[in-house]
Amino acid sequence: MKNDDDKRFDGKKPTKRPPARKVLEPVDTAKGERIAKVMARAGLCSRRDAEEWIAAGRVAVNGKVLASAALNVTEDDKVTVDGNPLATRERTRLFLFHKPRGLVTTDRDPEGRATVFDHIAENNPELPRLMSVGRLDINTEGLLLLTNDGGLARVLELPATGWLRRYRARANGVTDQTRLDTLKKGVTIDGIDYAGVEAKLDRVQGANVWITLGLREGKNREVKNLLEHLGLAVNRLIRISYGPFQLGETPEGTVEEVKTRVLADQLGEKLALEANVDFEGPVIDRTPEPEPEFFAAKGAQKGPRPPRSPETIKPHRATSEERRPGGPKKPEPRRHVSALRDDRVKAEKGPRR
Questions:
Q1: How is residue 268 annotated by DSSP?
Q2: Can you name one GO molecular function term for this protein (predicted)?
Q3: 187 in Cβ contact with 137 (< 8 Å)
């Protein structure tokens, strides 16, 4: 008996296999958005996490469990995750974060190092789930853009968007402006092509030099690789701007939100359409409720403590006086002060002889 592969060599058309059963028929690709993208826009997870959740059978559309992320959904579709309805999409928001050194730009670090998002969740619990626009190395500090909109993050980090990223680098070694100008034409290092970079020598500080660089690609370790190509060893790197947004005086480790009007103006109509931003959606208040007054910090004005429950009140224990035969000794009647004075005088004179 010949299989389908054998029939191909016989000149006969292979028999049609029955189509595989699909959990859910995809909708018209011209309508709606990919399910993973919708989940990311809702602030539930990243696209990668959404695809993993779908593969694990945790996501359903219109009551049918998805087997693949290759599906478009519209506003009319009912999406559930672990049986819970997908949250309403929030307004597109952008934040400026002054990243300190020592934080990893990732959701989960397999080595257990502190992450940017751990820091924000601890210090700014009122913020929505955020994702970064690009990344900064663990030892790179400065401006990191954060947003709750995966579409906006994707558009802003593309080199085609053309937003300039500026860095200040301190590097050990000797160079001059002429050598830095050679980076304008672009270079190839270890088989990787780097586009032209603007580099300006700011000042010499002992054995180090301070350089300001402007680049538009943002490849992995690009600044360090370019300066190492010139014989310089970078020992400090600070991102000072990303497109029109500046680090400015933002304190280290803090987050500042860009006003919606400013964000809309800076994006313009073209980028806003490409990112499919939503400036009319709601803003969900996640501010934690204040602790009860009786748990207030030491030194603060405290309210009354709550009454103790009967289970925590210890029974009364009888004293030694109460356990004496006949009960406790009755107190003597109170005496006038003059009588007490006479007793004291008699005690001082002593008994008569």
A1: H
A2: RNA binding
A3: no
pLDDT at 67 over 80: yes
CB neighbour list of residue 97: distance below 8 Å, 6 or more residues apart: 116, 120, 143, 144, 145, 146, 250, 254, 255
Q: Does residue 315 register a pLDDT over 90?
A: no
Q: Which residues pair with 187 in a beta bridge?
A: 194
Count of C-beta atoms within a 10 Å radius of residue 94 = 24
Confidence at 293, pLDDT banded by 50, 70, 90: low
Domain ranges of the chain: 23-85, 94-275
Smallest CA-to-CA distance from 25 within 70, 57, 80, 85 is with 70
Which residue in this structure is represented by tokens 């748990």?
Answer: 295
* Three-state DSSP class for residue 189: strand
CATH class of 23-85: alpha beta
Maximum alpha-carbon separation in the chain = 149
pLDDT tens, position by position, 236-269: 999 999 999 999 999 999 999 999 999 999 999 9
Helix, coil or strand: residue 273: helix
pLDDT of residue 318: 52
Distance from C-alpha of 218 to C-alpha of 135, rounded to nearest angstrom: 9
pLDDT for res 297: 55
Tokens 């006969």, located at residue: 12
At the top level of CATH, the class of 94-275 is alpha beta
Which one of 49, 107, 118, 137 is the catalytic residue? 137
Indicate the average pLDDT of the chain.
82
* CB-based contacts of 213-221 (< 8 A; 24+ apart in sequence): 213/166, 213/167, 213/168, 213/169, 214/164, 214/165, 214/166, 214/167, 215/164, 215/165, 215/167, 216/159, 216/162, 216/163, 216/164, 216/165, 217/159, 218/134, 218/157, 218/159, 218/165, 219/192, 219/194, 221/137
Query: Which residues are CB-contacts of 71 (< 8 A; sequence separation ≥ 6)?
Result: 24, 26, 27, 34, 35, 61
What does the alpha-carbon distance between residue 54 and residue 36 come to, in Å, rounded to a whole number? 8
Q: For residue 21, what pLDDT is reported?
A: 36
From 26-30, 210-214, 337-341, the region with the lowest mean pLDDT: 26-30
**Catalytic: 137?**
yes
CA dihedral 194, 199, 201, 202 (to 10 degrees): -130
The upper half-sphere exposure of residue 120, i.e. CA atoms within 13 Å in the direction of its Cβ, equals 25
